[in-house]
């Protein structure tokens, strides 16, 4: 969308560009914080609810599959509420999901915890369906990747803080606790230890619910401008003439799959890294902070993106470089052990950083009146964060729902390699040619 169109659709009396970016930046911080708590929760639930690897990774399945089921409904909600009210509603839904952690912790029920995570994912689905196209459209198309990179710093700063804060509360002294629980000789003593550990999660999630509710109220009363994605400039109108379905845009359809595999590798690098470290023989006291390492690497990637896009690199070229780095770091992790292997997995955060900022604008470019539904489909692709970790665990864990796909199990290092490399190769394909298919 051209600068002229954006100016027409954003009244001058409302919030200016900088103020709008600041508000959207706060929202990106919120869903970064909530999302990247999952890496800590995987290890926490594995102890509290006595789970195997595949069961613990249902944390990502419950959270990210909400995007699959609710992204399309989110687009219809936004058509009724508008972007601002829709984002405020999304914050309230996340708050409700956070409050579900209270009865879940009291009952030590993994099913209830998963329900709370699914509700949080539903709220984030609405929030992301609104905020991502907003960030792409509110300014010049040429700097969309740079703009989303700036917002990515807000997102990943929160993501780096989230596991540090939650781990310091819920996994404090986790290694000793795990040994005490394993050594407990009677069920009463063991349950008392598990109940005490489970209760640690209540305080943080009550605090999250309160903060989100306050933010929803403030957002509702803010002067954040609405954007009109149904109005098209002349070039976009010409490109969409005769189009009756969003599926007539191949760059979007291929982009949805690209988002699917991208989020999958991002979650593998950020949330599964702790499990990978444990499989290498490291203690929970060490692995509970590994997610932060990945997020710090992503932050570095976003800073590089802001410095280089669009001055030195296009978003497309950045995506190509990132995909190649993803392959190289994955292979390096496979050929190393111990902290060296974990370091290369953390460096995947650097490779992943510029992917969302590049893929999203490339996929929705030229959609015009189909932007809302196109955005919803892309956000739907976030479900890859739930599916790909299960495919990974299914390669070596017979308890996984995907274990039937493999005739014989392999070790976790091979599984990681076989999951990640094909994903990065597809991202490279999209960066090189996928976004051009179907265009005149």
Structure, briefly:
With 440 residues, this protein is mainly α. It is built from 23 helices and no strands. The N terminus is likely disordered.
Radius of gyration over C-alpha positions, nearest whole angstrom? 21 Å
Listing every helix as H and every strand as E from the N terminus to the C terminus, the arrangement reads HHHHHHHHHHHHHHHHHHHHHHH
- Count of helical segments? 23
Oligomer classification: single chain
Task: Give an account of the 3D structure.
By secondary structure, the protein is mainly alpha-helical. Helices cover 75% and strands 0% of the residues. It is built from 23 helices and no strands. The longest helix is centred in the N-terminal third of the chain and has 28 residues. It starts with a helix and ends in an 8-residue tail after the last helix. The N terminus is likely disordered.
Topology, element by element:
Layout: H1 3-9, H2 17-35, H3 38-48, H4 53-56, H5 58-81, H6 83-99, H7 101-107, H8 110-137, H9 144-170, H10 174-183, H11 187-199, H12 202-220, H13 234-240, H14 250-270, H15 273-279, H16 284-287, H17 290-308, H18 315-334, H19 338-352, H20 355-364, H21 371-380, H22 384-394, H23 412-432
């Amino acid at each position: 969308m051209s600068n002229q169109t954006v100016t027409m659709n954003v009244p001058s009396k409302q919030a200016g560009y900088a103020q709008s970016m600041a508000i959207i930046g706060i929202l990106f911080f919120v869903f970064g914080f909530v999302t990247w708590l999952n890496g800590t929760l995987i290890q926490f639930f594995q102890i509290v609810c006595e789970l195997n690897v595949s069961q613990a990774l249902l944390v990502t399945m419950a959270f990210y599959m909400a995007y699959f089921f609710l992204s399309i409904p989110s687009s219809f909600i936004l058509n009724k509420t508008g972007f601002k009210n829709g984002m405020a509603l999304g914050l309230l839904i996340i708050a409700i999901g956070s409050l579900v952690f209270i009865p879940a912790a009291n009952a030590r029920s993994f099913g209830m915890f998963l329900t709370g995570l699914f509700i949080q994912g539903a709220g984030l689905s609405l929030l992301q369906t609104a905020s991502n196209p907003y960030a792409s459209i509110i300014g010049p198309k040429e700097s969309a990747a740079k703009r989303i990179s700036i917002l990515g710093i807000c997102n990943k700063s929160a993501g780096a803080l989230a596991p540090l804060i939650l781990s310091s509360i819920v996994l404090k002294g986790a290694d000793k606790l795990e040994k005490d629980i394993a050594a407990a000789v009677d069920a009463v003593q063991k349950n008392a230890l598990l109940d005490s550990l489970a209760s640690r999660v209540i305080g943080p999630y009550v605090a999250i619910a309160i903060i989100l509710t306050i933010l929803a109220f403030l957002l509702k009363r803010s002067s954040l401008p609405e954007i009109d994605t149904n109005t098209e400039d002349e070039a976009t109108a010409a490109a969409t003439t005769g189009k009756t379905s969003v599926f007539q845009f191949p760059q979007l359809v291929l982009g949805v799959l690209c988002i699917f595999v991208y989020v999958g590798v991002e979650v593998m690098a950020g949330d599964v890294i702790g499990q990978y470290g444990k499989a290498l023989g490291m203690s929970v006291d060490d692995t509970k902070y590994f997610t932060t390492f990945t997020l710090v690497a992503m932050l570095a990637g976003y800073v590089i993106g802001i410095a280089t896009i669009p001055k030195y690199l296009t978003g497309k070229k950045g995506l190509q470089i990132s995909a190649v780095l993803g392959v190289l770091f994955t292979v390096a992790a496979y050929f190393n052990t111990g902290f060296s292997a974990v370091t290369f997995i953390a460096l995947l955060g650097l490779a992943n950083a510029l992917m969302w900022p590049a893929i999203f604008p490339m996929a929705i470019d030229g959609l015009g009146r189909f932007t809302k539904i196109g955005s919803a489909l892309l956000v739907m692709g976030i479900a890859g964060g739930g599916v790909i970790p299960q495919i990974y665990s299914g390669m070596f864990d017979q308890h996984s729902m995907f274990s039937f796909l493999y005739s014989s199990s392999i070790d976790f290092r091979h599984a990681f390699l076989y999951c990640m490399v094909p994903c990065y190769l597809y991202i490279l394909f999209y960066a090189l040619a996928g976004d051009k298919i179907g265009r005149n």
